[in-house]
Sequence to fold (848 residues):
Amino acid sequence: MLSTTRTTKDAALRLAAARLRENRAAVFAANEADLDAARAAGLPAPLLARLGYGEKKLQESVAMLGALAALPDPAGRVLEARRLDTGLLLRRVSCPIGLVALVFESRPDALVQMAGLAIKSGNAIIVKGGREAEHTNRALSSIVAGAGVDAGLPDGWLGQLETRGEVAELLALDQYVDLVIPRGSNEFVRHIKDTSRVPVLGHADGVCHVYVHADADLDMAARIVTDSKVQYPVACNAAEVLLVDAAIAGRALPRLVASLESAGVALELCSRSYALVGAGPGRVLKGDGDWSVEYLDYRMAVRVVDSLEEAIAHINRYGSGHTDAIVCTMPETARRFMDEVDSASVFHNASTRFADGYRYGLGAEVGISTGKLHARGPMGMDGLMTYKWKLEGHGHVVADYASGTKVFEHADIDASMEAGDGHL
Amino acid sequence: MLSTTRTTKDAALRLAAARLRENRAAVFAANEADLDAARAAGLPAPLLARLGYGEKKLQESVAMLGALAALPDPAGRVLEARRLDTGLLLRRVSCPIGLVALVFESRPDALVQMAGLAIKSGNAIIVKGGREAEHTNRALSSIVAGAGVDAGLPDGWLGQLETRGEVAELLALDQYVDLVIPRGSNEFVRHIKDTSRVPVLGHADGVCHVYVHADADLDMAARIVTDSKVQYPVACNAAEVLLVDAAIAGRALPRLVASLESAGVALELCSRSYALVGAGPGRVLKGDGDWSVEYLDYRMAVRVVDSLEEAIAHINRYGSGHTDAIVCTMPETARRFMDEVDSASVFHNASTRFADGYRYGLGAEVGISTGKLHARGPMGMDGLMTYKWKLEGHGHVVADYASGTKVFEHADIDASMEAGDGHL
Fold:
């Protein structure tokens, strides 16, 4: 895969799209079998909807593969170039990581997306989809894997696992597998993280905060807090905790609580906020409870804080480093919040729900990482790339520089030239 | 540390340099105590030299701290900027990783270098030096830590561990420590990698290769192979294995062997190369032995391979992903080698010994990573940096985009503006 050209990769993407269209009947039949089994097992409607792979999902997959083929090649980009000496040219060049395992639950369309990203990035992949989508995944991966090989990718570029036992074995093979990206429930991702010897990129928790500062515009604050909580409460970037500055809590809390409650949100209140808004339906006194709960539901914790510093300290202590927002007017206040909150995404006067690869304009989202190494926050195809150092000389040896016969020039040069150009 | 300004960081570096000069007598006395103990324990001369911290080393430390103060701030660089919509600006901004542990053996000057890099990058650090340098390290870290605090860094920005038990405890604290960078012997680094829950960047092995292709210039090949082996054999980037193409082995091997043997290198030969060069002093028949040995000595393994493909396969199977070089004339041959060898550094017609942060022009070298995530190969201060996503809006909510009331613009904008600029 490391030496696959852009032409081959794009041909593989287009052939995979064509084969999906040609073999739609077989895919739909496989999906019907999965749906029948899921209905028989009494799966709830939202999970059935995620499991379905019909004409609309197929068209989306085909369009996604076509869009990937149209993108520039993420491999072979010169990220940095330096002439170390006459005839001795160093370049740092992007390249695929190698073998990436993508482990996810349910959604069969994710399998096609991951396979497409693997082709374009030049990585070999191993995919493991949800057991409920067993027949659909098998049909899709067989079509896409075959199209890749027929277009010139090496045999075995796409591997599929089907059981949890196979995943457990894979997570021990750190000498072969470079990276695991799990997507799914908290418990699922945490289990992968806890048991893997292979590096894992992703996030288990999304305990996101909105902090309403003393100088906030209260209409804006209500709009942002409510959108952050209810626009899609099961998402990892939905807010779970509202922090309100004590200086405006008396005015702000009734307004914020009214907005949230009219959207159907139940509230767990600290003793100070409970004292300010009083009892009511759906309100409970949280007191000194656990501030790291990810509700993923129409439920939110509320706490009064005495200062910007206390808000930052609360978030850094109880948050998950995912996405946190401040609503405030003064730019200096926003700057301090955004610098000192140690999270992947830090927002000023915007809903936490914007933390997403598509909304960030990254194209397909490979995942969202709450780790700080390699990739942080929403990651696009760049998360599947690494780099290597390429040095081209004309017989250069270090002894000449150690003896002082030669001295390094270390001249940075324009990195926009193509990789593979001749010597400079 | 996350919000420390460039002014404070550079003042801390300069104050640390001044305090080192002022307190040189105490440092030298502490170093004498370490040297006395080391001599009493019978430490060999090269280790005593590494342990010594006299006037010359102190001047180097002072110069290094001054050079760091003169560098641009690695934090706050805008790496990517995109207007998501009117008044909604997304920026990806470099920032320190957080808390980094630097664990190394012996050399007390490394402690000052690591502390300087931590200040400039804005990371809090925990250092653990070698037990032999106990008194010197204690004196140096106390001077540098105090200078940092006096210049405005937060108390506790530099922590020091002294025992292996403390290191073992630290490696379990993945909720607090973001990264461990170990430097030292293979066994030492491998032990850290095997026992750490905290991510580790570094390299345990340097099994580097030079492959002499069929169309190689033999004078150049002899020069590169010999420099790669003997210029400093104990370095991780010294070559351990010579691969020679069968098509020229009959002509090339006598020439290469003569060059290596005249530099004092003992050879372990595969059966084909042994048949070609015959028996001799310092030559042993390796046969089908272990091809992954890191000699770190005047000793090299030699193998005849039948093709470029076999050379690449050998390196990818037995190498350590550190640094590998080809000597050849045809650019297309070099391109294939450099694309398909899965190592951090891949060289054409240059000695493996160039794989080094200083020679690459990276400034101070934080370490060399053979992993593929976050940083690969020689890493400079960039290895201590991550990034966060900063989104600045004016009350923007996702509901407007979900309903179609607003649409994303996703306009890439010039990222060269300063972080902290106002809204666009």
Notes: Residues 192 and 408 of chain A are 47 Å apart (CA to CA). The domain at 208-354 of chain A is CATH 3.40.309.10 (Aldehyde Dehydrogenase; Chain A, domain 2). Residues 418-424 of chain A have pLDDT under 50 and may be disordered.
